[in-house]
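Question (not urgent): is this output format expected?
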Amino acid sequence: MAKKRSSRGQPSLFPEKKAEVPAIPAEEALSFLRETRGVTTWTVRDMADALKIGVADAKRVIPILELQGYVKPAGANEWMTTLSGEDVSGSKPPRFTRERVAQALDDLRGRIADINRDSKSPYKITEAVAFGDFLSDRPRVQSAEAGIRLERRGTGADDAWSGVQQRDFLRQLHARGGVIQVRPYEPWMRERRHRNLL
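Got this back:
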């Protein structure tokens, strides 16, 4: 059975059903679970703030995550991400300082500006956002995630476009030491809490 498309333009982990469950792309919900690594518990408000959705919508998403075994109750109005939730979301133990991540993102912003100024570069970067637990006030955080949209330069640009070329180009934007994970841009990345890199 094909996944339903969400209102945010991506396959949805939560199929739309009589407006009971908000249409949130699966990757967007998992990005929140990644951010919870290193915290004991979190609240519905934490999810709503991170994903920029209403509290009522977050209250409808959490039971779906619970049914899948990714979260469990941890007291009155508190939740915790399970080991399954950590695994499926790809979270890692927080090991970077927020300052190190901020510096790596500033460096990435500079590289993006250089690429966009370089007329010989095969691509121009038209969207660039970063998100992750570095946006919190925690002393230790995971690597930041950066969504980058590439646009091919030149005439007949679409003729030479390939996913492999795009991945290779994005790979050169990764920060040393795994401080930033760069991936192709998706619209939901701008709709959640993020830092603009352009």
